[in-house]
Amino acid sequence: MNGFIKLNVAMTIAFVSTTTSYAQPTPKELHSEGYVQSLDQSASSRLNTKALHLNDVIEQGLRKNYDQQIRKYNDEILDLKWDDTWEDFWLPKVNISLISDEHRLGTVKGGSNNASPRNKRPDGALSLNFGDYTLFNWGRDYLPYLNTKADIKRSKEQIKEDSRELKHDLIIAYFRLSFFNEQERIKRDQLRHASFIYRLNREKISLKKVSKQDYYLARSEYLRAQNEFQEAKNAVQLQNEVVANLINDEVGTKYILQDALKYELLTTPLDEIIRIANANNPDTLDALKEVENAKRSYELALKNNLPLPKISMTLGAYDYRFGPNTNRTTFSTGEGNSNIDIVASINATWSLTGSGGLLNSRRTKSSMLSKHLAFAKKAQAQRDSKAQIKSQYFTVKHLQNQINILDARIPTLQKSFDTILENYMNKRTRYIDFKNTLIELTDAQILLEQSKFLHLLNKIELAKVAGVEDFPGQNFENLKQSKKGSK
User: Fold this and answer.
1) Which pTM does this prediction carry?
2) What's the pLDDT tens digit per position in 150-176?
3) Could you write out the DSSP letters of every residue in 404-449?
């Protein structure tokens, strides 16, 4: 009890500002009564402060993020492109055309009467054209159609994957800011302790109750803690800008987080994650699409090298002819023929010299090599995803072990620090012991918060590689708990 009374008396004395012959010149803000450097109040008052929950970040980010808005437009463009692709293949190309010859609107200057004057009445045709409709072409038109269909489908899947990744990035950004806030709080506590001992020694040295060595060591530690605290504050400010950019808030917004990270173990087995990734990994899906497209392209190259007939139907056109001497409607499929016929034609070209090689041999070989290349990239994507999953999975397990150790270590360090602080106040230990214990306690507390954040980060990155939004039985949106002091 006597130790705590002495501690309180010493703290009261320490915060009384006096000037001694041993104090070195310092910036004005470091002479203030507080242990934190003074801020520019005018700049602080201009900050836009906003309370923020995790669900608010996710909802606003998915609604207002610029990249997400661009993805929505791209998705609509892909829908229109698919409509064009489907109609071009399955439906005949019907169009309306209007053609008129030159006709005279008026004469600026008269000329020879021998020339035939242009007609004053328009002459031309209004046509409804149905064109040709391919019935059978040995897959030459169907294979490119399937490739385009696969490209559009994969592009739409990538838009959904990018939206899912944005959600993951929003969660990471929120809890990264939460970690930086905790780091700032811990550094503030470190600075508070260092400032207290420094001011206490500054008072004691005038009474020659402390050595110059302890005074300068305390001053050095105080300034070092001040520097680390300012770096922690800057990290918070920079992360505020990252969050504001992701959710499209006003530049310079300062956030007061209402949720803290809830630590939960990863329970999904490694084999299950690998199985999920084999079916959903984005890079693997891209490679699979390229494999199928390359196989179809090679098949098309072989068919293009064969004189296979094309069977089609000429649907013709309705023409309405108009002019001074003509006003009639006719149906024709060419050269005055009005019959709708099913016709066959053969069109094959083989190169003897130039690009493509003799009889298109280089073009065919290039298609075959592209197919082998696609298979190699697929195998590489599958192996890379499996290696990345294992690496991040083992990192998560390592962090879980480290968190368990830190949970047991920090209470011991806290008791050790309290004991050494009291002993130093009573001159029963050296200043270096106080300093080392304070740094060790601060580093351990930050490491615990950092490990919890990295544990979440690696779990989310693991989900990204696996190609899923959450793991079975674990929703990343629910890894939160109300912060102390928040409503």
Assistant:
1) 0.84
2) 999 999 999 999 999 999 999 999 999
3) HHHHHHHHHHHHHHHHHHHHHHTTSS-HHHHHHHHHHHHHHHHHHH
